[in-house]
Amino acid sequence: MSWKTVTIGEVCDLSTGGTPSKEKTEYFDNGEILWLVSGDIHKREIFDCSGRITELGYKNSNAKFLPIDSVLIALNGQGKTRGSVALLRVKATCNQSLVAITPRNKDELDSKYLFYYLDGKYEDIRRLTGDSGNDRRGLNMPMIRKIFLPLPPISTQQKIVAKLDAIFAEIDRATAAAETNAKNAEALFSQVLNNLDAEDSGVSKNLGDCVELLSGFAFKSSEYTDSDDDIPLLRGDNLNPMSIDFSKAKRFDKNRLSEYHKFSLSINDIVLGMDRPLISTGLRIAKVQAKDLPSLLVQRVMRLRCSKVVNPDFLFYLLNSDKFIKHLVGEQTGLGVPHISGKTISSFQVKIPSIEIQRNTVSKLHSIEERLNAYKLANRKILNNLKFYRQSILKRAFSGELVKE
Fold first, then answer.
1. Which of 92, 110, 178, 277 could be bridged to 157 by S-S, CB 3.0 to 4.6 A?
2. Do 145 and 17 share a structural domain?
3. Which residues span the domain enclosing 301?
């Protein structure tokens, strides 16, 4: 391969934008000028955005119109944003978190070729900011200008782009299918879960009449210990959706366990966080396992202990249903930290079928859950393989292996 190598600064112009004063509503209200921010970069090809500024805002800021077909790159962001690129396909401005990279000579450098190259160098570009210990550092124009770029003849660039377009269209279709399959799997399980008592003709009862409810004890922080050998205290912070994490638990003197036997946990107890009961990944609820014992229940966590007529697995499924979650959301209070009361949990209306029906239902749900989890795992592997394949294709493209000159 006899391609020459240049820096981006040698063949491209770089420009950025600005932000009109947020204190002046006339710079934004009813604006018609597209104004991009770093969050728009994930669209890959940008034809529109939600941000708008007015003509007055444009004239009184550093915002400027960017050349169409420029490659935009995000300068900042601790998540996936920094170093991400997109192609600008519409007349627009941007704030200072984005830089437009524009080939000076379209007969020398194809914009989409540049986009694909920078997309494939994403991890390398992020490392320019010092990911090893300087996550807050952003990219800047001098860094971008110094990035090396292989520059084959324009005809070869166009062949590479056409080949990548075709391959990535197939990858996108396969990715969309895998993601749809995963969503369908979740929807199927939710459908079964949310109809647990739909066919039961029994009388609805309050949950508090079917199981034993107990809120934890207000242990004093002055009594906490530093020894990992002592008893972990189950607080809301130790509750994740479906599991308990005692890795950062507060501890209490194990020699005093008998004093607080009432608040001890047992296998198959269900525990529910009452402060911030819902987090982004689900409900703060778990079923106690042998590995979680011995442990003690702390204030603002509710323990639900089943009687002989209630199967704990059946109850656990029921409490993870949309019906219960909607009940909690509708009753939660608190402006700063949303929380639910014991009364709210106790008043949840349930229909508990016979213990035999409960066991059969649990068996059915276990079977469906196992199949769906296996299915979702297979889909995640497909998505990871497609991501790896995409990167390998980009590497081949810019090492001269994808097309023949």
1. 110
2. yes
3. 212-346
